[in-house]
Specification:
With 169 residues, this protein is mainly alpha-helical. The protein has eight helices and no strands. Helix content is 75%, strand content 0%.
């Protein structure tokens, strides 16, 4: 989590990427140590595991890949090594529970904060593609690109502008 690789590729948006990495660190630590935990420690870490997944998923919804990984590991262990599956069955169930609880939590937070998507200010997905191709940016975030795109009104107008850039660049 502190390596240059992590910073370069995962911590570029600090407020959402760091909670995701911390969530993954908690999940992996719980999975690794689960079979050695005492009953009390399993209860405490189980609650922490669920809360970690809920927070991680609410902050960064692409954490859903962890759910897919948990399901794949479960199926694989079900077919290959049921004894190992029995050792980590409860943390896998708690991870799934965390994802299930993240849905109403996210909806509740959006409702409480009166959040709604405003496409007028949204950037098209091609913005991220352009940033990787932009010769002035060396594939990095360019605030000048963001400022320029922010000055264009409407998502479709932004999309058209980026389409021209991608075809000319």
């Amino acid at each position: 989590m502190v390596s240059p690789f992590a910073y370069t590729y995962y911590l570029q948006v600090f407020y959402s990427d760091l909670p995701t990495l911390l969530c993954l660190a908690i999940v992996f630590n719980v999975l690794i140590g689960w079979s050695t935990f005492s009953h009390v420690k399993k209860i405490v870490t189980g609650v922490g595991l669920v809360l970690s997944v809920v927070v991680g998923e609410v902050v960064k919804p692409n954490l859903i890949v962890l759910l897919i990984a948990a399901v794949l590991v479960t199926v694989w262990l079900l077919l290959k090594d049921r004894q190992q599956l029995n050792l980590i069955k409860m943390p896998l169930i708690l991870i799934i529970l965390g994802f299930v609880l993240a849905v109403p939590t996210s909806v509740g937070l959006k409702s409480a904060s009166h959040f709604h998507n405003n496409n007028e200010y949204a950037f098209p997905a091609t913005h991220w593609i352009w940033m990787s191709y932009n010769p002035q940016g060396d594939g990095r975030y360019q605030s000048s690109d963001v400022q320029l795109l922010s000055s264009i009104q409407g998502k479709q107008a932004k999309q058209n502008y980026l389409k021209k850039l991608c075809h000319s660049g």
